[in-house]
């Protein structure tokens, strides 16, 4: 693997995030963990990550998260700007894990999707 390090934006208690960590460790991949539920993700950073992934904010909205409905984020009338602002303020509504390597990002659901970054 090249020198570009993997960064995993995760919630440590998330089953998918744990499976991803195990998969990377099995393959001997060095990676940095960011618990974005504690540290948060600034709106600009989130925009940058999703742009690298070719995703919009609706693509990473955790629709099963009760707060999404409470805040009305599932309303199709909500603008991307409104969604980004809400995601920066309430990281729990962002789907996980997001994995970054250089100029590429994947939403690793299922965890095997990370393999696309390891080539």
Walk me through what this model shows:
The chain is of the alpha+beta class. It has one domain: 3-Layer(aba) Sandwich (Glutaredoxin). It contains 5 helices and 4 strands, in the order βαβααααββ. The protein has a 4-stranded mixed beta sheet. Strand 3 and strand 4 form a beta hairpin. The N and C termini lie close together (7 Å). The mean pLDDT is 95.
Strand-helix topology:
Blueprint: E1 6-10, H1 15-26, E2 31-35, H2 36-39, H3 43-53, H4 66-70, H5 80-89, E3 98-101, E4 104-107
Parallel strand pairs: 1-2
Antiparallel strand pairs: 1-3, 3-4
State the gist of this model:
The protein has helices at residues 15-26, 36-39, 43-53, 66-70, 80-89; strands at residues 6-10, 31-35, 98-101, 104-107. With 119 residues, it is of the alpha+beta class.
Compute the number of structural domains: 1
CATH first level: Alpha Beta
CATH homologous superfamily descriptor: Glutaredoxin
- Name the shape in a single word: globular
What composes the largest sheet?
Answer: 4 strands, mixed
Gyration radius from CA atoms, angstroms = 14 Å
State the helical fraction: 25-40%
Termini distance?
7 Å
Count every helix, treating DSSP H or I runs of 4 or more residues as helices.
5
The helix-strand sequence is EHEHHHHEE
Major sheet: arrangement of strands:
2-1-3-4
Q: From the coordinates shown, what is the CATH architecture?
A: 3-Layer(aba) Sandwich
Main traits of this protein?
119 residues, Glutaredoxin, alpha+beta, single chain, 4 strands, globular, 35% helix, four-stranded mixed beta sheet
């Amino acid at each position: 693997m090249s020198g570009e390090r993997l960064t995993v934006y995760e919630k440590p208690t998330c089953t998918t995030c744990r499976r991803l960590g195990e998969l990377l460790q099995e393959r001997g991949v060095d990676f940095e963990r960011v618990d974005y539920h504690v540290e948060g993700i600034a709106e600009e950073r989130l925009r940058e990550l999703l742009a690298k992934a070719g995703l919009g904010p609706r693509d990473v909205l955790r629709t099963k998260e009760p707060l999404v409905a409470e805040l009305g984020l599932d309303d199709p009338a909500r603008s991307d700007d409104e969604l980004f602002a809400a995601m920066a303020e309430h990281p729990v509504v962002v789907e996980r894990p997001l994995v970054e390597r250089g100029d590429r990002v994947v939403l690793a659901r299922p965890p095997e999707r990370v393999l696309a970054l390891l080539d």
